Amino acid sequence: MRNNTLSECYKLFAVRTQTSVQNGRRNYSSSSQEPKPFKEVPGLSSLPIIGSAHHFLPKIGSIGPNLNAFDLMDTLHKRFGPIVKMKGVFGRADMVFLFEPEYVEQVFRAQEANPIRPGLKSLEYFRENTQKSTADGLYGLTTVQGEKWREFRSKVNPALLKLKLVKVYAPGLDEVSKDAVNRLKRLKDDQAYLEKNFNLEMTRWSLESVALMALGSRIGCLDDTFTEDHPGRKLMQFTKDMVDTALELELLAGIWKYFAIPTFKKMMNTYQTQWDICATYIEKAKKKINERGYDIPDEEKSIVERLLAIDERVAVIMATEMLAAGIDTVSFTATTLLYHLATHPDKQEKLRQEIRSDNPHKRYLRACLKESLRLRVVVPSNLRRTDRDHVVGGYHIPKGVDVVSPNEYLSRLEKYYPKANEFIPERWLTDKSDPIYYGNAPQMITLPFGFGIRSCIGRRISELEIETFMKRLFDEFKVTWEGPPINIVNKMLVTYAEPFYFKFENAK
Ligand code: HEM
């Protein structure tokens, strides 16, 4: 079986590499069909147990601790060429970074039927141990693979993807956006507050928006009475804890499985709190649906009603997943778009005119979002763990390796997008004859929501949330950025740090 797969790979490799591939400083020739062994893939040197971690140490490391995700990719690409290996740390899988779109395509497409993307080990542990009886064989989307994943995804796909999202949620999301914009109206002159708390304000809006869909009701995050004991605060704290502790808990998985270290204990409690809050809201939503006493047309049913029709546990697990994956991602993406438009007043004015026009198709708004997602993404790379051997770029990549496609980095290379680092929404609206036309870049490069059947299930939801909010916001305000460039912090997800120099004035 394995030999068959390998020989298929060799054939594919032979066809694909009739020409030599030049990139960075290396030149790989296809003259030989015999792949070079995995150990010869260029990359950072490694030590036993700690893998390549010493390269990231301050002062003595060849890379150091401070490179952001983009600069790290740039360094690896320029130093080692189109395929780069990084040895796994503390028993984790080895990683291979692919800087050629055709290599990415080769691996991601081959994995299409069985897309493996390892999830957080601590959440996996929580679902499979602490919650064994509650979840009873259902583990959601983000932490499971293979048949378990496929079964759950095919259950929930219709509920999230096959509904008239705009019809069911546009009015509700518009109400949320109005409330968020009204808060900004009240806060806009308190520059000191906004400089420090803009992220919090955006998170309150994104949580309120996703909760409407995941929990089936508004939860009050935009109310003035959003006190410390509000369940919304706990849900926000949950995502913060998850992002903050992810790296430590991943690296120390070999230890906390046997000794419950404090960070692990804290995270188990946090997972439980998030579950309990979701279960309470889903119970309330169920009661409300039952009290309605009559059925409604399928197309008017909410996501929660559709999920409840499958199984209450499915509704709760999906709510926990939507709240884990749909708060910080959306607020980051909206902040990024706001930043790009605040720093490009001409594009902002063009957008405002479109928003205020009678044309219901807001194509420029859509193009602005796409362009913003090309330039900066909350998940800058996509990843698949190989479930078989591959031959890529002349090297053997065995089963069990994490193959990384650095999408944001590739999307900002001049050879794929002319004026690659400029915010030009027009590239998504122009036609083939125009050199800036987005379609001239290879398909596998700009994938902010991932790839194939395992791509983001919340994509349409996020787009609707962000577009609804932007329509209200830019109709109301002229937004500028009055300071040095925004600060990026790289954690499990990319985030922004204060100060935020947005300035909001009434738009004419
Ligand atoms: C702009 C905001 C968002 C971005 C950029 C984003 C991006 C992504 C990416 C890159 C993946 C991995 C896909 C892959 O491996 O191919 C993913 C998975 C996922 N996202 Fe999103 N996401 C966003 C918002 C949301 C929202 C609002 C939800 C909630 C409904 C959500 C729920 C999920 C879930 C559950 C998965 C795992 C899917 C699976 O494994 O089957 N995301 N997202």
TrEMBL record:
Its cofactor is heme. GO terms for molecular function: heme binding; iron ion binding; monooxygenase activity; oxidoreductase activity, acting on paired donors, with incorporation or reduction of molecular oxygen. The keyword Oxidoreductase applies. Gene3D superfamilies: Cytochrome P450 (1.10.630.10). Heme binds at residue 456. Keywords: Heme, Iron, Metal-binding, Monooxygenase, Oxidoreductase. It comes from the Eukaryota. Belongs to the cytochrome P450 family. This is Cytochrome P450.
